[in-house]
């Protein structure tokens, strides 16, 4: 994992580049591999979802934050990386299937 601290707008997880597209609620990312969009991640209303290949696509990862129905941003970097890494793993499985 690499966090682009210069721009504070990119996360790199293995072959995936996640570009932060909204700095407020909801926290959301476009996900790329070699410059091609392969996914979209969004956290809003206590629900994290990831679709492929873009918004409105097939849902490959979800998580509900039962303790915070208004959650729109990850609480910290550890929580962010936990869910974004899991999401990238699900995208990878789908791409290899």
Topology (elements, then pairings):
Layout: E1 2-3, E2 10-13, E3 16-22, E4 27-33, E5 36-44, E6 47-52, E7 58-64, H1 77-96
Antiparallel strand pairs: 1-2, 2-3, 3-4, 4-5, 5-6, 6-7
Spatially, the strands of the biggest sheet line up as 1-2-3-4-5-6-7
Radius of gyration: 12 Å
Terminal CA distance reads 24 Å
Which residues sit in consecutive blocks of at least 5 with pLDDT less than 50?
none
Number of domains: 1
Shape: globular
How many strand units?
7
Largest sheet: 7 strands, antiparallel
Give average pLDDT, whole number.
91
Kindly name the structural category.
alpha+beta
SSE order = EEEEEEEH
**Content of β-strand:** 35-45%
Number of helices: 1
- Relative helix content: 10-25%
Structure description:
The protein starts with a strand and ends with a helix. It has one domain (2-96). Helix content is 21%, strand content 43%. A hairpin with a 2-residue loop joins strand 4 and strand 5. The longest helix is centred in the C-terminal third of the chain and has 20 residues, at 77-96. It has one helix at 77-96, and strands at 2-3, 10-13, 16-22, 27-33, 36-44, 47-52, 58-64. The chain is α+β, with helices and mostly antiparallel strands and 97 residues long. The chain is built from 1 helix and 7 strands; from the N terminus they run βββββββα. It is globular, with a radius of gyration of 12 Å.
